[in-house]
Amino acid sequence: MKILHLISSPRGEASFSVKLGNAIVEKLQAANPGSTVTTNNLTNTPFPHLEEVHINSFFTPLENHTPELAEAVKHSDQAITELKNADAIVIGVPMYNFGLPSALKAWIDHIARAGQTFSYSENGPVGLIKGKKVYLAISSGGVYSDGPMKAYDFTESYLRSVLGFLGMIDVTAYRVEGLSIPNLKDVALNNAVESIIL
Ligand SMILES: Cc1cc2nc3c(=O)[nH]c(=O)nc-3n(C[C@H](O)[C@H](O)[C@H](O)COP(=O)(O)O)c2cc1C
Predict the structure, then answer these.
(1) What is the pLDDT of residues 73-126, one digit of tens each?
(2) How far is the CA of 137 from the centre of ligand 1 (A)?
(3) pTM, rounded to two decimals
(4) Region of 136 on the Ramachandran plot (φ > 0 left; ψ -120 to 50 alpha; else beta)
(5) Cα 32 to ligand 1 centre (Å)
(6) What are the sequence ranges of the domains in the chain?
(7) Residue whose CB lies within 8 A of the most ligand 1 atoms, among 98, 140, 153, for a mutation test
(8) Does the domain made of 2-194 have the CATH classification 3.90.1300.10?
(9) pLDDT for the residue 198
């Protein structure tokens, strides 16, 4: 199995989404001996916010690419190739202000490309990235899996929508949550790791 592990917390080894992502990767490796892992830290090598040149590069046919457009499309091409090559994608998601960190959103903006990862048919949109297993490792100070704050969670719902739009419909979410809540914070990681069933 080829595993792609995306990291979007800048906190290195202290990060709970990294720890939970690592636990998912380890369980995948144990269940699939000989697996390879590609780790892509989106905070060390960030994808740029989309500028005019990126948009132009996405919508200009390859044969008309100037050197500037060819350079601009490289990030996106590389990310899409990495995605297509993977069998399983583990995405670390620290909740920031109820949603994704901008580093992860920037990656999404580079992989969601008409004609490459989705297209439109007479019956509507078609996702082109098929057959992937996606695992989300979501960390948060509060609790969002259930209870009064559930409606404030725009991490899992957004990722399920956008990844599903691109064809990745087999998505499992694991959460290390309650990291700011006194009686939960010390058991949150253990509870999350124990919840992993592949
Ligand atoms: C900028 C920022 C925004 C945050 N926003 C939220 C939030 O909206 N809800 C929440 O429950 N926790 C929030 N937190 C807490 C983080 O989700 C929590 O610390 C988590 O462990 C961060 O992930 P990491 O450990 O992988 O870095 C925020 C933390 C930071 C630094």
Answers:
(1) 999 999 999 999 999 999 999 999 999 999 999 999 999 999 999 999 999 999
(2) 13
(3) 0.97
(4) beta
(5) 32
(6) 2-194
(7) 140
(8) no
(9) 86
